[in-house]
User: Fold this.
Amino acid sequence: MNTSIFIAPVPQSSGHPAKDLAHRDLLSIQDLLPEEVRALLDLTALIKARPADFRGALSGKQVVMFFEKPSLRTRLTFEAGLQSLGGQAIFVDQTRSRLDERESLSDIAHNLERWVDCVILRTFDHVTVTGMAEHASIPVINALSDLEHPCQALADFFTLEEKFDDIAKVTLAYVGDGNNVAHSLMLMTASLGAKIRIATPKGYEPLGEVVRAAKKIAASTGAIISVSNDPIAAVTDADAIYTDVWASMGQEQEAQQRAQIFEPFQVNEKLMAHAASHALFMHCLPAHRGDEVTDAVIDSPQSVVFDQAENRLHIQKAILLMLLGGGLRRFRPRSTNA
Ligand code: CP
Ligand code: NVA
Assistant:
């Protein structure tokens, strides 16, 4: 584990690829260099192993969270995580109207930057997140938009690294909708030099621009990314099988139609039988049991869904620490084997 980046951040002028993340935004996995993804995962391991060492690291910091969509995990892990670092979160329920309906995004941004240290947004349109980041001088974190779910994918790959020795040798099969979660998983795979096979029904593939961006990163990391419409080919001998809801938040009116189209993509015991015998089952949750996954699979010993949910807490503490510059010099672990 390399903790040097956090204890003594490398100055940008040094030409080192690992830049200090303080005061940056996290809107997409693409906002992080592969070295920065690695650094974030390493810091997460440190925080998870020694949470007490980070108590008070963000003392006095205030974060505002505007959520246009419901949330259990993201909201609570950001709130609990920030509180455990000594900071404070202010939650705004934005589910009844879009953020920029009453006032322009730029005016909201110029208010927020006078009051708080960071903005966390869960939105429908990704441009709401990028617009806030463009106008606000404080860090903005994407807590899920229709395009990406970066905090989720970071936690998922942290989980995979806990289970497998060498992430570069791991093949992840994602079966279902080519949605925000699929996009962020694909970009994480690219950054870490892993392998992902995505299988969706025709017409529900991930966006071409995200596939191209992931493949561009993959060219320098050795990652392998494939997209098909064949769930069996995707899961055959895979190390982990991931699925997500067939109709994301905001697509509820399509749920019935999608249920028929996606039926061959259900992760059930028959599909899991094609994966490696050690294969894990992953889901970002909430799950629609009986649709994209059966009870037998999500409740099986292969399922790591609650490990993924737990790791949202640890990864988001690391994100907050890095973006809000939490005086990390003070937090060198007292001992690595205690
Ligand atoms: N996985 C996830 O983001 O869960 P919530 O929608 O409950 O935040
Ligand atoms: N794709 C899902 C993820 C929920 C965490 C959605 O956007 O609703």
Residues 152-310 form a domain with the Rossmann fold fold (CATH 3.40.50.1370). The chain has two domains: 17-148+312-324, 152-310. The longest strand covers residues 62-67. Residues 144, 179-181, 244-245, 248-249, 284 surround norvaline (ligand 2) (CB under 6 Å).
